[in-house]
Each structure stands twice: as C-alpha cells, then as structure tokens.
Design goal:
CATH architecture of the largest domain: Alpha-Beta Barrel
Distance between the termini: 45 Å
Protein name: 2-isopropylmalate synthase
Strand content: 15-25%
Structural class: alpha/beta
Largest sheet: 8 strands, parallel, barrel
InterPro entries: 2-IPM_HCS-like (IPR050073), 2-isopropylmalate_synth_dimer (IPR013709), AIPM/Hcit_synth_CS (IPR002034), Aldolase_TIM (IPR013785), LeuA/HCS_post-cat (IPR054691), LeuA_allosteric_dom_sf (IPR036230), LeuA_bact_synth (IPR005671), PYR_CT (IPR000891)
Number of strands: 16
Organism: Paenibacillus apis
Bound molecules: 3-methyl-2-oxobutanoic acid, zinc ion
CATH superfamily of the largest domain: Aldolase class I
CATH topology of the largest domain: TIM Barrel
Radius of gyration: 25 Å
EC number: 2.3.3.13
Cofactor: Mn(2+)
C-alpha cells in the first residue's frame, strides 16, 4: 500500500536565508498563496523572533493560508522565540511550533558551551513550554547526522516524553550519504514506533554534497513520514532538498517507494517561476524538473525517438508539472479574461475587484506602450504593483537620465523624485554604468555596494532585463533590483533604483513597531 508523505515547504524560512533572496511581506504572502495552490501540507513561514518584518510576514501568512494547511515558524529553545512563534501563527488553521536545538558534540560544546545534559534539559523545558501554548510541537535535532547516536536518541526520547509530536532529523551541513542516512532513519523509526507511534518522523536535508534529494528519498524508504523541502532547492549554501524533485521522484517511482504526496503537481512550474521572479535568483538551466532544459531534447536521435513514441526518452511529461507549451502574447485588445488568465497562470492572486481593475488599467497602459505584452512583462507589472502596495511610499522614481560615454570621462546626469521632490546630479565614472550608479548613489545618499550586475536580452531580443545585487556598506543583507526596458541604460538605472527601493522597504518594515507579544 502506498504511504502518504507529508510535505513541509520551508522556502520562506530556510530558503529565504539565501543572500539576495530577501522578500518583503507582500511577496511572501503571494508565494504562500501559491504554496496553497500547490497543496503542500505544511508551510514554515519564517523565523519571527529575528525581526518585526519577519513576524509580520508570518502573521499575515497564518491569517491568510487556508485549505487545511498547517503553518509553523522557527524558534530556538528559548521562551522568547517560542512566544514569538505562538503569537505570529496562532490564527492559522493548524498551527504548530517548531523548536530547534543542536545535538552534535560540535553544537553542544562550541555553540552552547554547556554539558550535554544541560542542553538536553533546555530542549525538554522548551517543548514543555510550547505544549502549554499549542497541541502540536515539532522538535529538530540540529546537526543530527553528525551526532553521537545514543545522545541523539536520548534527546528524542526525552522531548517526546515532554510532548513533542513531530521529530525532525536534519542533515544541517549536508554531510550525510544516502545509505548511512537511511540507516539512521531506520533505527530512529524503529525505536520511535515503540516509544510513541503517534509521533511523526520527519527529515530535513541540505545539499552540500549534492545528495539532499537522495538522502531524503533514502529516509522515506526507511520510514520517514514527512519531508522538509524548498522550491528550486533554494536554501543556504548549496540549498535544501528540492520539493519538485521529491514530488516527481515519488510520482514516477511510486511503486519502488510505495509512497506518494498529495501535491498538486501541475502547480510545480508555476510555483518555481513565481519564486524565481520574486527573488531574482535564476534556476540552473539543467536543474531537474524546473530547469529550462529539463524537458528539452536536442540530440537528433532523441528527437527522432520522441516523435515515434514519447515514452522512448520521456519518464514524465512537461504537462505533468504544469509547463504551458504556448505563451499567450497579450495586446491592448486582450480583455480582462485573458489578463486574469495570465495573471493566475503566473501564480499571482487576482485580489479584490478594485485591485484587479487597477492592475488591468496598468496592463492596458503597458500594452499601449509596448504593443505586445509577454509573461515576463506581466510578472514585472504585478510584482511592482504588489511591492508598492506593501511599501511605505518613500521610494525613488526615475524622472530622467542622460549618459554620455567616451574614452576619457563617461558622465551621467540623473534626475530622481522622492516624496514629490526632484533631485538632480551629474557624476563621471570608469564607464557609463559606473557613472550612472555613482550618480544615483550620490543622489540617494546611501552607501550602496554593487555586488553583481547583469544585463540580458528578453522578448526575443527586443528588450533588456537589468538585474543587480546590492548591499548597504557594513551590512549583511543582500537586495535584488530588476527592471526591463528597450534601452539598456534605462533598464540598468531602473534596476539599481529598484534595488535601493528594496533596501528602503525593508528598513521601513523593520522600523515598524513589533506587535504585542513579540
Ligand atoms: O538545517 C537545519 O538544521 C535547520 C533546522 C532549523 C531544521 O534548518
Ligand atoms: Zn536547514
């Protein structure tokens, strides 16, 4: 009989820790709505004790997501963190608290400088406290794959007796290999069933050695009932287990694993693209399932075989994961129905009638301007609109620019507007983009470091997509700015301004007063 595997998506917590993947509250909500369409069982929405912005995002997601989906958020094993999680998720349909505490020697000795027993006791107390708030509590034994087994088991036994209802075994540093990790899960599964068979066994893998998917599947084969994943495998360093790979491996090889998920597989591609667009982080072209080439067959022999019978070279079809073969090109004549169709196809929520009408009017202006509107244009339009509705209004707008380049002194003159006030400056630089960005930097007065700059052609070469990653001097957070225009200089300028606006939005979110209970 095929067992159901529960899927927790942690893109908004573990995934979002990636440099440059920072999303604002509106973007997180947009993504959580799409996770609901994908029918994940559980969403880890953030780490609310880390900032007021994160708290607010988790709270909005808990209030919004429905359909029986559980919402959780991460807490260290301390009262303050647990309170923040409880306050932010309590309005969810099925909330649960997720506590993490290390079990490896390196964590116990180096991170906490306490005895093993003292750390274990901290975990037990945290679970007992969390259980006074909610009936469901997940406990993660951080760095489990490098922990001494008997201490790991002693911790699991103690926290289960204290009331933990889900035990999560993380391969925090991506050190595990499939056979060994499977064996670890088999041993824990056997003991756990004897201890309390209502406790769910979960795994959480990282991809440092490229084995996150293999380790997770090996865990499923050996008794894991729940898996933690992210879309596109987004996550710190080499990332987390990729949700789409697990979903399709269980679908294509169900008879081998005797397991399945309840995911709506046709929503996979939409979810992947939405994430790419929101974070600005591209998926590697040959990435399994969601890469651009994942279903492309270029060799003549393969194409010939495919034309005779798809099964010759295809173990799954692009339609299974919701790849739409035809891109609908919109024009000013496309009505509301077509616009709404594209909007929903891209994973955006249409919103209230007023909101939709505002977006449709913006679409018509764009269609008048550009004549042909592609998916990526609609993406740009919608995410810009959603960003503004979630923002403070204290953002920069580009009024005009002039860039003159020659061998001696490329120079840029830029006019920006903020809160109704126009600002203008002229600077020279090593090249036209350096002059342009130097001028914008001077106008905003922000010490912004440019980490990465890219310009790509889009719309079959008719337009340019500018993309930057920036950081404020002496700070860790990395922000993405993107913009598209037929003029590459304008696309570059607007991308940099959008990046700066992302910094301002994030700062204003952080400055918002933390809600009571945090
Ligand atoms: O990688 C890890 O150990 C984690 C835990 C919080 C589950 O992300
Ligand atoms: Zn992790």
């Amino acid at each position: 009989m095929s067992r159901k595997i529960w899927v927790l998506d942690t893109t908004l917590r573990d995934g979002e820790q990636v440099p440059g993947a920072k999303l604002n509250v509106q973007q997180k909500l947009e993504f959580a709505r799409q996770l609901q369409q994908l029918h994940v069982d559980m969403i880890e929405a953030g780490f609310p004790a880390s900032s007021a912005g994160d708290f607010q995002a988790v709270q909005e997601i808990a209030r919004t997501v429905r359909g029986g989906i559980s919402v959780t958020a991460l807490a260290r094993a301390v009262k303050n963190d647990i309170d923040s999680v409880y306050e932010s998720i309590k309005l969810a349909e099925n909330p649960f608290i997720h506590i993490v505490l290390g079990t490896s020697n390196i964590h116990v000795e180096k991170k906490f400088s306490r005895s093993r027993d003292a750390v274990l006791e901290m975990g037990v107390e945290a679970v007992k406290y969390a259980r006074t708030l909610l009936p469901e509590v997940q406990y993660s034994t951080e760095d489990a794959s490098r922990s001494e087994f008997e201490y790991l088991w002693r911790t699991i036994e103690a926290v289960v007796k204290a009331g933990a209802t889900i035990i999560n075994i993380p391969d925090t540093v991506g050190y595990a290999v499939p056979e060994e990790f499977g064996e670890l899960i088999r041993k824990i599964h056997e003991r756990l069933k004897n201890l309390n068979d209502r406790v769910m066994l979960s795994v959480h893998c990282h991809n440092d050695l490229g084995m996150a998917t293999a380790n997770t599947l090996s865990a499923i084969k050996n008794g894991a009932e729940k898996v933690e994943c992210t879309i596109n495998g987004l996550g710190e360093r080499a990332g987390n287990t990729s949700l789409e790979e697990i979903a399709m491996a269980l679908k294509v090889r169900e008879s081998f694993y005797q397991s399945h998920t309840d995911l709506n597989l046709k929503e996979i591609m939409r979810t992947s693209r939405l994430l790419t667009y929101l974070t600005g982080l591209d998926v590697q072209v040959n990435k399994a399932i969601t890469g651009e080439n994942a279903f492309a067959h270029s060799s003549g022999i393969h194409q010939d075989g495919l034309l005779k019978n798809k099964e010759v070279y295809e173990i799954m079809s692009p339609e299974d994961v919701g790849v739409e073969s035809m891109e609908l090109v919109l024009t000013a004549r496309s009505g509301r129905h077509a616009f709404r169709h594209v909007m929903e196809k891209l994973g955006f929520y249409a919103g209230s009638t007023d909101e939709f009408e505002g977006l449709f009017a913006a679409f018509l202006r764009m269609a008048d301007d550009k004549k042909e509107v592609y998916d990526h244009d609609v993406f740009a339009l919608l995410s810009a609109a959603r960003k503004q509705s979630g923002g403070s209004g204290h953002l920069y707008e580009l009024e005009s620019l002039r860039v003159v380049t020659d061998d001696e002194a490329p120079t840029a003159t830029v006019k920006l507007k903020r809160e109704g006030v126009s600002l203008e400056d002229t600077r020279s630089g090593d090249g036209p983009i350096d002059a342009l960005y130097g001028t914008i930097r001077a106008l905003t007065g922000l010490e912004v470091e440019l980490l990465d700059y890219k310009i790509n052609s889009m719309s079959r070469g008719k337009e340019a997509l500018g993309r930057v990653h920036i950081r404020l001097k002496h700070q860790d957070n990395i922000y993405t700015g993107k913009a598209m225009d037929t003029d590459i200089i304008k696309a570059s300028a607007q991308a940099f301004i959008n990046g700066i606006n992302a910094v301002l939005l994030d700062t204003s979110e952080k400055e918002k007063k933390a809600p009571a209970g945090e």
